[in-house]
Amino acid sequence: MKRVGTLLNIILVTLVVAGPFGFAAEKGPSEQELAKISSAAPEKARVAPEKPRKLLIFSKSYGYYHTSIPYGQAAFRIMGQKTGAYEPIVSDDIEMFEPDKLAQFDAVLLNNVNEDVFAPEDIDKLPLKEYLQAVDKRRRLEKSLIDFIRSGKGLVAIHAATNAFLDWYEYGNIIGARFDNHPWLAGSEVTFKVEEPNHLVAAAFTEPTFTTTEETYQFKGPYSRDKLCVLLSIDNSKTKVKLDHVGWIHRRDYDFAISWVKSYGKGRVFYCAIGHEHKHFWNPVILQHYLDGIQFVLGDLKADTTPSAKLKATAKKANN
Would residue 20 count as lying in a domain? Predict the structure, then answer.
């Protein structure tokens, strides 16, 4: 009977993931991988939602396409349905960012989005009239997302999302950093240290460090610990760079943040750079971290966004 129930669960999950916004099985998780995602997803939300929540999961991508995108879609959808923390709506339709449609959501999740996805990929090749119309629409959708977050809503951004909206200056201030490069290529062993072990959004990590393999980023401006509460960063004492990649290290402060939270207006932002390799979407610790970040931006998990630099200064003063 247990075997039949498991099989039914796999079938149901497969149908959910391959729904109206679905994808072919060969382009996404296998049934076995879907079962692993479902099993690894938290059993319940960290906190009960204060009211029914709705999350827009948006994964449109130009240029480099991360094959982990459908795995993220599956994981974020399954977590919402399994825990009841939010109703997941998966759509890559940019019309969802029009103000009247965006208003129905409590938060937006940018799942490995890449480049300027609010405009046609071939925008520079359009006739002048269509080009101007596309630019006007892009600006309107950008303003819509700004107003959405500033009003008290939330934004989750995963992995490549720091390389999105390249022509939109303010997006860097919203998310907190811009992608520079990845000195640690896919498959590199990296160790992350938990910088704020008492922070609610970092609670999934019960040990001081967390070792895995991943394509790992370094970030450039506007990245600053004066503006972000950094939760995870690379442990430089335990993570090595290949000799031929040493020149890729641009940060002289060797500050390689991985996950953080911040405020934007009245709203909340959570970013996590983990999300290149498929396996992370059936890792219970990472899924819990994602879920905690989602609940934070939805407004249910009340977590501090005091920037790391201020927290450090306060702690230093208290110890003197």
Answer: no
